[in-house]
Specification:
Strand content: under 5%
Number of domains: 1
Structural class: mainly alpha
Helix content: over 70%
Order of helices and strands: EHHHHHHHHHHHE
Number of strands: 2
Strand order of the largest sheet: 1-2
Radius of gyration: 18 Å
Largest sheet: 2 strands, antiparallel
């Protein structure tokens, strides 16, 4: 006989040593500072080692990476201040924060199965944006440093959508870079926008996830503490790396993780007696 309960019991998350959690925070934010993004890599690791229950992954990402992302934004604004167009960065950052606040307000009420399926789709979208970035071979020197007119309106609307999607575990870096490239922006000038947007998007989402208790407390502590040194090492010591091979590996891992989440959602939705 087949039954369909509201939700099957979740498998308990593994208790990972704090050193491992610090390493996850360091590595994810190291690569985030170099342009890969932290959400995609962290989601893959959390699922691979069953570190956090699936329904708590979006909240863990937003709460755990909030502080490192703020430090990253400050660094980029200082280092790339000459490429900042104030109207563009202010409007897109605020739009992303609004999207994150309202998007998270919806996601925190979703059951585990819905979150699993939404995250599965979100990871495919992230992989697609990453692939587009690499296939287009985005220039760091060509294009405008800001948006005006209709282009700015499109950028603001896109930022609202991107901000709302962070509640599902989609990082804002890849989609923001893809959208601004299509609007003609210099991709080096986008780094302060991406980082500053994330520094508002993540805390806005984190507040709502924190209030709802939809995150893993021990994991976010390790990620936050380990993440800040990762940002500083990438920004001031390494500065740049040829990461094309790593990015394609990440795309493959995201597709695999998406498939496992979808399969897990099917197990969540039905049991056979």
């Amino acid at each position: 006989m087949t039954t369909s309960p509201a939700a099957a019991p979740a498998s308990p998350a593994r208790r990972i040593p704090m050193a491992g959690l610090l390493g996850v925070g360091f590595g994810a934010n190291f690569f985030d500072t170099l342009g890969i993004g932290s959400f995609a890599t962290t989601t893959a690791v959390l699922r691979l080692f069953r570190m956090v229950n699936d329904e708590d992954i979006p909240g863990t990402l937003n709460v755990g990476h909030a502080i490192p992302t703020i430090s990253e934004a400050i660094i980029f604004i200082i280092l790339l201040g000459g490429l900042i167009d104030v109207p563009t960065i202010v409007s897109m950052v605020l739009a992303g924060g609004v999207g994150a606040w309202f998007g998270t307000g919806i996601v925190v009420r979703w059951p585990r199965r819905t979150i699993q399926r939404a995250m599965a789709v979100a990871l495919i979208v992230t992989a697609a944006f990453m692939a587009v970035r690499m296939l287009l071979n985005l220039s760091l020197t060509e294009g405008t440093k800001g948006l005006t007119g209709l282009s700015l309106v499109i950028g603001v609307v896109a930022s609202v959508v991107i901000g709302s999607l962070t509640s599902l575990g989609i990082g804002n870096y890849a989609p923001t870079m893809a959208v601004t490239f299509m609007l003609g922006m210099n991709q080096k000038a986008v780094f302060p926008i991406m980082a500053a947007s994330a520094s508002l998007i993540l805390p806005a989402a984190a507040v709502r996830f924190y209030r709802a208790g939809r995150f893993d407390r021990r994991t976010v502590v390790g990620m936050a503490i380990g993440g800040v040194p990762g940002v500083f090492v990438a920004a001031f010591l390494v500065k740049s790396l040829d990461l094309n091979t790593v990015k394609w590996i990440v795309v493959g891992v995201l597709l695999y993780t998406s498939a496992t989440l979808w399969m897990a959602s099917r197990e969540t939705g039905s049991t056979t007696a």
